[in-house]
Design a protein that fits this description.
The protein is mostly helical and 268 residues long. It has one domain (38-106, 113-267). It has helices spanning 27-34, 42-66, 70-96, 100-104, 112-146, 162-196, 198-211, 219-243, 247-267. The termini are far apart.
């Protein structure tokens, strides 16, 4: 009977090293190479998110009954659900993944402003790239396929009250970026990327991010929004990969939403 020593946990830590197609002397590469790998599996991340999503939905039931203004009720419920989802994810990470802050990456104190400044610039470039390049191309393709005019469904009420505008702004530039980046980049992207490679991680992040932006509309309009957000999710995950800190996609996401809300409310 042979007594071989147990091997490494290949499911939790892939044996292959990262492949970084950039100058290995660059400080960003050093930071990426030293970053620990995700300790949670993709199926764990998805299962926890589903539970968090259900809990968030249950929490919104009384809100939808208490608030008479339908638009305000829906937006308030969405904001509360996102908070519950983020809280559930943070509780799971803290209880079962004690090293999660190091895994997701937070900049050193002296690097915060540099990361914020870089990510503001990325967000400023990201919005026109997604809306006026990717969006236009997808709209043309879907228009040819459907034979109908294609327009992304409205994500905010057309005639909002003051309270609705306030909730929309807080939700759009604070709650949604934090909650969505925590899962789709910090949890899901890292779990897939660290086990199956960068391309798989980018695609998983993009698919998940696109699907949560589904709205009840004509199929071509709904698909346009999902498609734009699919590529947007890929871009934000790539930026996270490039910078090595979860702060980067959060800031870029905030800037993206600020631009979108500003244009919506100023052009009406």
């Amino acid at each position: 009977m042979s007594a071989e020593p147990p091997g490494p946990d290949l499911d939790r830590v892939p044996p292959r090293p990262d492949r970084l197609p950039v100058d290995p002397t660059h400080e960003d590469v050093t930071r990426l190479q030293s970053r620990p790998r995700a300790t949670w599996r993709p199926w764990e991340a998805i299962a926890v998110y589903v539970v968090a999503f259900i809990l968030g939905g249950i929490t919104t039931i009384p809100i939808l009954g208490w608030i008479e203004n339908e638009d305000l009720a829906v937006l308030s419920a969405s904001a509360v659900a996102s908070i519950v989802i983020a809280g559930t994810l943070l509780g799971w990470l803290s209880a079962t993944q004690p090293g999660w802050p190091d895994i997701m990456g937070f900049p050193a104190r002296r690097e915060w402003w540099a990361e914020i400044r870089s990510s503001i610039g990325f967000g400023l470039a990201l919005y026109p790239a997604m809306v006026f390049v990717v969006g236009v191309i997808l709209a043309v393709l879907l228009g040819v396929i459907s034979g109908e005019a294609v327009e992304a469904p409205e994500q905010v009420p057309s005639e909002p009250s003051t309270a609705t505008v306030i909730v929309t702004v807080v939700y759009g530039i604070v709650i949604a970026p934090l909650s969505e980046e925590l899962f789709f980049r910090g949890v899901l992207f890292r779990a897939v990327r660290d086990r199956y490679g960068l391309v798989s991680g980018l695609l998983a992040s993009g698919v998940g991010f696109g699907l949560i932006h589904f709205l009840d509309a004509d199929w071509q309009d709904a698909l346009l929004l999902i498609g734009v957000m699919f590529f947007n999710g890929i871009a934000l995950a790539w930026w996270y990969e490039r910078r090595g800190t979860i702060v980067a996609p959060i800031v870029a996401h905030v800037v993206f939403n600020v631009i979108g809300l500003t244009l919506i409310y100023t052009l009406r």
